[in-house]
Amino acid sequence: MAFIIDGKKISNEIKDELKEKVAEYKQAGKEITLAVIQVGHDPASTVYVGNKKKACEYIGIHSLAYELEETVTQQELLDLIQSLNKRDDVNGILVQLPLPKHIDEDLVIQTISPEKDVDGFHPQSVGALSIGQEGFVSCTPAGIIQLLKRSNIEIAGKECVVIGRSNIVGKPISLLLLRENGTVTICHSRTKDLKEVTRRADILVVAIGKPKFITKEYVKEGAVVIDVGIHRNENNKLCGDVDFEDVEPVVSAITPVPGGVGPMTIAMLMYNCVNAVK
Ligand code: NAP
Fold it and tell me: How do residues 228-255 score in pLDDT, each as one tens digit?
């Protein structure tokens, strides 16, 4: 039986640690404020934004909500970000993605001050990560490292295989595993003989975006499997990129969906907000 890596428990531990830190900051007269901008009324985005606000409340971070109409112009959004960049009382700025088609997402991300870039998507944050400098790290990959460390899973010297090379998951998690001295291989849709590569992994991170794609034929016995995927199946139940029932019996540790990587993303967003004060 594999060890089930409990992302809910670990994310709660992190949030409780942050709550204490925020209380100390408050005693020293420092408030932390996160500005959250949502454009339009996409139901999934509304749920994510709501969860972020709830986490802020729990930890003691003040949140400012900006709910803009779908018809807002790009310039109006950029002006709002620039005004928040200038405010000393705002520590972090988050623009909920995706944005409507008439707005250039890259330009929006680049307009957020790197000092307030709590999502870690700004090119300066990404560049800092790639050359080993301090900076905000995007939340899902940072959460995966915490899951491994807090489950006492050694990364140094391990064969780490990442499936996926997206800017928000695949690339940053590869850099973080490298920073932790893993031997890292990145796979993508043009990888030849995917199974042959993934079967070498001591730690397999799956961010492929395809429900239940990874079956036991893709994993080495005793490997650690981190499933980043989130999907709803035909019965409206959540599932990951990994076929959990098939893979769990052959691995040493695995993250479930839900309750694995998912809860870590918001916990690490809160971590970035608290660290924005420094
Ligand atoms: P994405 O941008 O769609 O990237 C998917 C990656 O998988 C791409 O690099 C693609 O390769 C690769 N790929 C696709 N088919 C493949 C195949 N047959 N063999 C090998 N590689 C293949 O996805 P993402 O944004 O990284 O997200 C991945 C999953 O994680 C999604 O299910 C998403 O919902 C989930 N997610 C969860 C969280 C969380 O908080 N838990 C956060 C973010 C994302 P190419 O580059 O060659 O196209």
Answer: 999 998 888 999 999 999 999 999 999 9
Please, are residues 34 and 116 in contact by the beta-carbon 8 Å criterion? no
Alpha-carbon distance 197 to 36, whole Å? 40
pTM surpassing 0.70?
yes
Residue 120 has pLDDT above 90, yes or no: yes
Identify whether the C-beta of residue 263 lies closer than 8 Å to the C-beta of residue 7: yes
Residue 171 among the catalytic residues: no
Q: How far is the CA of 51 from the centre of ligand 1 (A)?
A: 23
CB 229 within 8 A of CB 211: yes
Residue of 117, 119, 227, 241 with catalytic role = 119
Pocket (CB within 6 angstroms of ligand 1): 140, 163-166, 168-170, 187-191, 194, 207-210, 228-230, 241, 261-262, 265
Give, in degrees to the nearest 5, the angle at Cα 264 between 158 and 134: 65
